[in-house]
Amino acid sequence: MPPASRTATWKGLNLSAKIKSHPLSSQEVYHNTRPQSIRDLKAEESVEVGSVQDVVLKHTELRIFTPKGKSPAEGWPVFPWFRGGGWTLGNIDSDNGLCTHIALGASCIAVNVNYRQAPENPFPAAIDDVFEALQWMSSLESSKLGVDRSRIVIGGTSSGGNLAAVLSMKAALATPPIPIVAQLLVLLVIDNTALPILKPWITNHLSPFLTPARMLWFRRNYLSNEEDWHNWSASPNLASSELLQKPPNTWIAVAEYDLLAPEGIAYGY
């Protein structure tokens, strides 16, 4: 039986890009990313979308999934998604299936953001890359793909949720600020100062998959300098109270027995 879930709610770059159609048609993406065994997550089965395009920026790459049908007059809402994987695992193909479902179900452009990974590219490379992606999506360049720049919602899972939480505050501090309508944070990493024998980890230290040892391995790949653990760009819960008021409306999902659940709940409140 899957663990129960809880939710809480709370309230200088080069923007030129190389845009190319995906080498596979949207139908081929659908067939080629379907699960090959029962072990694959059913949620990652792909559905056919209107089009799939890749955009290459200076440091990162975007895979853009556009819904079928006619674009609204003002353009499609856009949802950049940041994958999990401990800032270490995954690639541009990792969440193709999920992004097709988002595009279809939410009638929006879903964007799979491929950020640089640790340990080869440690902190702050990943956060720099997702900020670069957000800057592009809020620029006139993105309008060529039918994006409504006034309706940006960001989201991510695990380490990707960490990047989204940080990005929402960096967007508010940008000059000019980059408006984000909302953010969706799933099983997110919030406190990179947490240790196995202390709160919040002690609550779920027997977590069946993401153990304290495994989480520390991911953290040390990304945050090799322990001084960075206390930087709010790595641990968003350590941002100032004033800065913590700046993120948009936020939806948080945690799994009851996940190691990261207590910090996600605390961040929500």
TrEMBL record:
It holds the Pfam family Abhydrolase_3. Residues 81-267 form the Alpha/beta hydrolase fold-3 domain. It comes from the Eukaryota. Transmembrane segments: none annotated. GO terms for molecular function: hydrolase activity. This is Alpha/beta hydrolase fold-3 domain-containing protein. It comes from Cudoniella acicularis.
